[in-house]
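hey so i finally got around to running the thing on that chain from the lab meeting. sorry it took forever, my laptop kept dying and i had to restart like 3 times. anyway pasting the input first so we r on the same page abt which one it is
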Amino acid sequence: MTPTATATATPSPTVTPTDTPRPLARAVLVGIDPGHGGRDLGARHFNADGHMDFNESQVVLEIGLRLAQLLRDRGYGVVMTRDGDYYLNDKEKLDINGDGWYDEMDQLQQRVDILNAAGADLIISLHFNAYEGEDVDEVGGTTTYYCAARPFSDQSERLAQLIQEHTLRALAETGYDSRDRGVRLDLEAGTPDEHLILLGPEDEDCARASEMPGALVESLFITNETEAQLMRQEPVLDALAAALFRAVEDYVAETASDGP
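ok and heres what got predicted. didnt touch it at all, straight out
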């Protein structure tokens, strides 16, 4: 269909409980990681005058807070790596990963440490994508990443599949058919042969790896004008948060049915 920047449906942030409550809801602690924060704006959107009018950091936090509320309303535990507009480790400037200097990797290590210390059962990391090049408005869609180099890779892959499926479905229900860019390995997300710190194993940048399955979703492209306008619509943000909630519910139900 021809993309439209106006949502034609109004999804509700309230998720109607199933007739039979999902098992283990109160035993599950969900880690939510809104990417970036504070001075790290992430990808940025510029208006027709060339001025930045919003950024990735703001929007993923809005979705993360919505998701947290949905989960808490159903009895899940929630731990967030950030719950406001701030950059982790910005004041202390500690060498958290022990590599001898302070840089961006330290705040990423701190996110991992927060989730590990809390004993999170799974991680959902929230991001939006960006593209620089010709025909920028032609590049868009939804991608979810996981790491295959972990003991729980199968669980991470399944979580990523559920996030991808529910996100695409939720966007379609608002009237936008997002391009399915697939479930991909985290090695494809950035620099070749480098894992995403939040999802990957220990390496020279990550001193302590995350201890639970996880996935990172790039819901839309902030550099695609149609998708950028969707990000500013409350019903779309509600729909994306509800999609992630449903992915968690399905994942928890499947994990419970697998047994010990």
